[in-house]
Design goal:
single chain, 259 residues, transport, VPS13, Chorein N-terminal domain-containing protein, coiled coil, VPS13_N
Length: 259
């Protein structure tokens, strides 16, 4: 099926760009089977390079990534995406120790991405010409629309933190966000979760957030000075839940419970 090829291609390119040493063959196999489960993924140091910002990822971790794709029942079952334990520690680029081999590898990857982008642009031009001669309401387009209608997303345990002890060495700062749970489901007009069929045009999505916090710490502890595992533990311990609010954080926004 064309759509299966599209899903494989998109996920391979997206995850391949952001994740260290991704086994694309295993990922593709899982997608074709309809059940992808990846654990303990490390986010690349240069994952922010496309944003053209002077920051790098000191610690980047995704504990679990799960995709459930009901290829045989795409019109009657939801496409589910689950992400668990997402932790990012971002620092100024100058705080990352220069590694010539890593830098060379990253430059090569960047060149390969640029070449790929150029080829994709050329292909898009060709595809656009072909699409002018085809009907716009194709089977694949209908299928994509149906999947988006019934897409279910669940994300848990997120902590994204930025640290800076360069701008003001006397008062190192850190700021970030912490979120325990985020979920998104399709609902009916009464906000009760259910599956829409292809005839329905209006899509309603119910988004739920549990324990969302934002903080800004001055004269802050610098996690990045620790090794990778210790820094990761500190990020994990910074997630607020219904039972524990971690100490040492000056919160500027707090949302307890569900919203």
């Amino acid at each position: 099926m064309v759509f299966e090829l599209v899903v494989v291609d998109v996920l391979n390119r997206f995850l391949g760009y952001y994740v260290v040493n991704l086994d694309t063959s295993q990922l593709s196999l899982g997608i074709w089977k309809g059940d992808v489960a990846l654990k303990n993924l490390e986010v690349k140091e240069n994952a922010l390079s496309q944003l053209d910002v002077p920051f790098k990822v000191k610690v980047g971790h995704i504990g679990n990534l799960k995709l459930r794709i009901p290829w045989k029942n795409l019109y009657t079952q939801p496409f589910e995406a689950v992400l668990e334990d997402i932790y990012l520690l971002i620092v100024p680029s100058s705080r990352i120790k220069y590694d010539p081999l890593k830098e060379e590898k990253q430059l090569l990857e960047a060149k390969q991405q640029e070449l790929k982008r150029i080829e994709e642009t050329k292909q898009k031009v060709v595809d656009q010409e072909q699409q002018r001669e085809e009907k716009q309401d194709t089977f694949t387009e209908k299928l994509v629309t149906q999947i988006i209608k019934n897409l279910q997303v669940k994300i848990s345990n997120i902590h994204i933190r930025y640290e800076d002890d360069i701008t003001n060495r006397e008062k190192p700062l850190s700021f970030g966000i912490s979120l325990q749970n985020l979920s998104m489901q399709t609902t009916d007009q009464y906000w009760v979760p259910y599956l829409q069929d292809e005839t329905e045009k209006l899509v309603r999505k119910l988004i739920r957030l549990d324990n969302l916090f934002a903080y800004w710490n001055v004269q802050s502890q610098m996690f990045y000075l620790n090794d990778y595992d210790k820094s990761l533990d500190n990020l994990k311990n910074g997630v607020v839940n219904e039972y524990i609010v971690p100490k040492g954080y000056d919160f500027v926004f707090q949302c307890y419970g569900a919203s």
